[in-house]
Structures are given as structure tokens and as C-alpha cells.
Design goal:
single chain, 458 residues, 2 domains, 12 strands
């Protein structure tokens, strides 16, 4: 049993050390890697999910030609420079109508419809004369249906450099109604309803006449079409699109740190109080045991909730509170052991030889109670891990630290149960159970090895 516990513990230790090698993502910093509550990638092996898209980007470079734009020759659009793409548009039509020119870029989309997409580029317009112009960004689907994504206002004034950025998640009802959609319908699903070749199009309109010629220039930087995946990684994503597998891996470090640190602090305090109280006796013993009694009757989790709210939700505050509230039980065990040992012959002989009180406690009593400490540390660690998970689940943990309890909190607060996202809920629960069970196995085995009474019963 002890070897099984040691093997499980070794697995988690290796996982915590190798976390940067096991996942490339920052568990808290990397957001929007895919759609919120995206499925794990291995879902693609099941029927109905095999064409779900992973996160992808289509990049159009600021040039004419390969990986860039195609310049349509039907309009008065001329190339001036590249990187960024610089174009001039001139019109001297006899009629007072718009002249039209187009930049196009084709890309192949062979997946199920996405839930959203984003487009981003930097663009600048500069009117060279009294121009009236409009620039429009469109997507043309394989059925040749065009969807207007963005357009500049018809203008006669220069426009400062600006960022063209749109996200279909935040589109207004008016925007959807132009596409013939209801307010609850999804724009991305409507546009990418078919598999095939799509076309990104920048359409330029310029109005002028022979009496009043018009011209303007356009500087266009790299354009990025970002499509968040509906599947991602080993365990999918949370509501913010953060990688759940990286949160699980890095959460191992936090759980081990909290469990070991809190258990060590608790056992050290319990050793000191138990030794001093048991050996000195009298008023010291009476006062310390009454204080222990008070702490034992206090409800542990409500006390931790109150104190963590008062002193802050730092991970070190949690370790300190867990250690300070967990030692009374072990102190009583140590005191009972010391009461038996202090009447032993070798202790009396040491007194007769003039040994000091602290010398007797450190040299004779402490080595005899240390076996209790080894087993108690191993058995206290699971309690500290589970308590931290409970605090984080109640939103009282450290919000800046990835932990298994924090995964439970976000799962409960942001729809994991409504989405039946079991891959969000079960892995941290299994991890907490396995790690706690490993320390229980180790602690029980150490108690059997080091405690002579247990050995005698067996």
C-alpha cells in the first residue's frame, strides 16, 4: 500500500516539475485560445464532431500576390507601395457616380460552422482632394452570397490611422437584421454555413467628375481573420477560452505546496505545544490544553472563511491559516506520549545528571515522538489539499493562483453543469482524490512501520 501511494505521489511530483514541458500555455494568462467551453480535441474521433474546427487564423499579408491580396483591374486602383500596402484610387468620371475597385483574397474553409470569428487590421485613409469615398470589407461565401462586415462612413475628410477590429460575439441587433437574422441567431454560423472557398474582399468606392476629380490613398496593414476553435487541447477550455489541461497541471504545484507547507507548520506547532505542555505540566499544561479545547470546538471551515476574508486571499495566508488551525489534535497526541516518557528511567537519570529542561525535551523526548510526526504529516496533507479546494470553490482562494479548487469554482459559476462539460469537472476531482489517497497510503504505512503498538497488534 505504501509503495502504491509513493508511486502516485511520484507521478504528481514529476507532473508538477515538468509542467512547462507538458503544456505550452499559461494557465491564467492565455485566454481566448478557443471558444468558451470548447470540447477536448479527442472528441473529433466521435461521429458528429469530426469536422469541428480547431482555432485557426487566415492571414492576408500587405502585398499583392502570394499570401496577399489580388488586385482587381476593373477599378481605378493603383499600387503605390507595399508593407504596408499603399494604394491610390482616382476617379475622373464624366458621370457623378461611384467608381468601384476591389482587393480580394481567397481561403478554404472545410469545417463545421464556427460560433464566432474576429477580424483585425490597421487601415488609414488620406483624401488627396475633395473626395467622397467609402471602403467596405466583405466576405463572399461559396454560393457567391456577400456579407458586409465593416464599412467606413462616406467621407470628404481625411481619417486618422485607426484599427479595424470586429468580433461577431458583440454585434448589435441592427447589424444582424441587415443580414436577415433574428437577434438570437449566430452571425458566424450564418456566414460559414457551407464548406468551400471563401473570399475576403476590400471594396473601394470613389465619387468624382471631370469638373471635380476625386482621389485618395489607402494604407492597409496585415489583416487577420481569427476563428476560435470549437475543440481544443486535451481537456478543452473554460468559459474564457483558457486551456483546462494547463490549469490541471499547474494546479498540482499549488496543491502540493499548500498541503506540505500547511501540514509541516501544523505538526511543528503541535510538537512544540505537546512537548512543553506534557513535560512542564502544572499551570502551563492546564492553560495550553484549555486553549487547545477552544480551538477543537471551533468549526474549522467557517473559521477559515472568516479569516481568509479578513486577511486576504493570498496563497500564503491560506497556508498560514491552515497550519495555525490544524495543530490542536496532534498536540494532544504528543502530550499524551510525553506524559508516559517523562517518567522513564533514562529521563530521570538525565535529570540527576543536571540536564536542563530543554536539553531533556530535545535530546530524549523529541526523538521518541518524531515517528508520530512523520505519519501525521502524511495524513494531514490530504486535509489541507481538500480544505484549500473547498475555499477556492467558495471563491475564497487566491484568484491569481491556478489550483484545482479554482477549476471547480469556475466550473460551478460559469456553466459547466449546464453544458454537461464533464471534462471540466471530473479531472480535478480525480486528481484531488488520487493525491490525497497517496498520502493516506503513505501515512498509514509509516504509522504501521514506526508505531510499535500497531506492529504488536499485527
Amino acid at each position: 500500500m505504501g509503495l502504491i501511494g509513493l508511486a502516485i505521489l511520484l507521478f504528481f511530483v514529476v507532473m508538477s516539475i515538468a509542467a512547462p514541458l507538458l503544456t505550452p500555455y499559461d494557465p491564467l494568462g492565455d485566454k481566448f485560445l478557443a471558444e468558451g467551453v470548447a470540447l477536448p480535441s479527442w472528441y473529433k474521433a466521435f461521429p458528429g464532431y469530426n469536422d469541428f474546427p480547431q482555432t485557426m487564423e487566415f492571414v492576408v499579408f500587405p502585398r499583392i500576390g502570394q499570401n496577399g491580396w489580388r488586385l482587381d483591374s476593373q477599378g481605378p486602383l493603383k499600387l503605390v507601395g507595399e508593407d504596408p500596402l499603399k494604394l491610390s484610387c482616382e476617379s475622373a468620371s464624366e458621370k457623378s457616380e461611384y467608381s468601384i475597385a476591389e482587393l480580394t483574397h481567397d481561403f478554404n474553409y472545410q469545417y463545421a460552422p464556427p460560433l464566432s470569428f474576429q477580424i483585425k487590421t490597421d487601415i488609414r485613409f488620406e483624401a488627396l482632394s475633395n473626395s467622397i469615398y467609402e471602403i467596405e470589407l466583405l466576405i463572399v461565401n461559396p454560393d457567391s452570397a456577400s456579407f458586409s462586415l465593416w464599412s467606413s462612413d462616406v467621407s470628404t475628410k481625411p481619417v486618422d490611422p485607426s484599427e479595424l477590429s470586429m468580433d461577431t460575439k458583440g454585434l448589435s441587433f441592427e447589424y444582424k437584421s441587415k443580414m436577415g437574422l433574428e437577434w438570437y441567431q449566430n452571425v458566424a454560423e450564418r456566414i460559414f454555413s457551407r464548406k468551400g472557398v471563401y473570399t475576403l474582399m476590400m471594396r473601394f468606392k470613389l465619387k468624382g467628375s471631370s469638373d471635380n476629380p476625386a482621389a485618395f490613398r489607402v494604407n492597409l496593414d496585415r489583416l487577420v481573420l481569427h476563428i476560435p476553435g470549437r475543440v481544443h487541447g486535451i481537456l478543452g477550455t473554460d468559459h474564457l477560452g483558457s486551456d483546462l489541461f494547463s490549469q490541471l497541471i499547474y494546479g498540482t504545484r499549488v496543491s502540493l505546496l499548500i498541503g506540505v507547507s500547511a501540514a509541516l507548520l501544523s505538526v511543528v506547532i503541535g510538537l512544540i505545544v505537546g512537548l512543553v505542555s506534557g513535560y512542564l505540566g502544572g499551570v502551563t499544561d492546564e492553560a495550553s490544553m484549555r486553549f487547545v479545547d477552544v480551538l477543537l470546538v471551533l468549526p474549522g471551515l467557517p473559521m477559515l472563511m472568516i479569516l481568509s476574508g479578513l486577511f486576504g486571499r493570498s496563497i500564503w495566508n491560506i497556508v498560514l491559516l491552515l497550519g495555525l488551525l490544524s495543530w490542536p489534535g496532534f498536540a494532544r497526541v504528543v502530550r499524551a506520549q510525553v506524559l508516559q516518557l517523562k517518567t522513564a528511567t533514562y529521563v530521570e537519570a538525565s535529570k540527576a545528571m543536571g540536564s536542563s529542561v530543554w536539553g531533556i525535551m530535545i535530546r530524549h523526548l523529541l526523538p521518541n515522538v518524531l515517528p508520530l510526526a512523520y505519519a501525521t504529516i502524511a495524513l494531514y496533507i490530504p486535509g489541507a489539499i481538500i480544505t484549500e479546494a473547498a475555499l477556492s470553490f467558495l471563491a475564497l482562494g487566491d484568484p491569481n493562483t491556478p489550483s484545482w479548487g479554482r477549476i471547480f469554482y469556475s466550473a460551478n459559476a460559469f456553466g459547466a453543469f449546464q453544458h454537461l462539460a464533464w471534462w471540466w469537472i471530473m479531472p480535478p476531482g480525480i486528481a484531488i482524490t488520487a493525491l490525497s489517497l497517496s498520502f493516506v497510503f503513505i501515512g498509514t504505512t509509516m504509522d504501521e512501520i514506526l508505531n510499535p503498538k500497531v506492529r504488536a497488534r499485527r
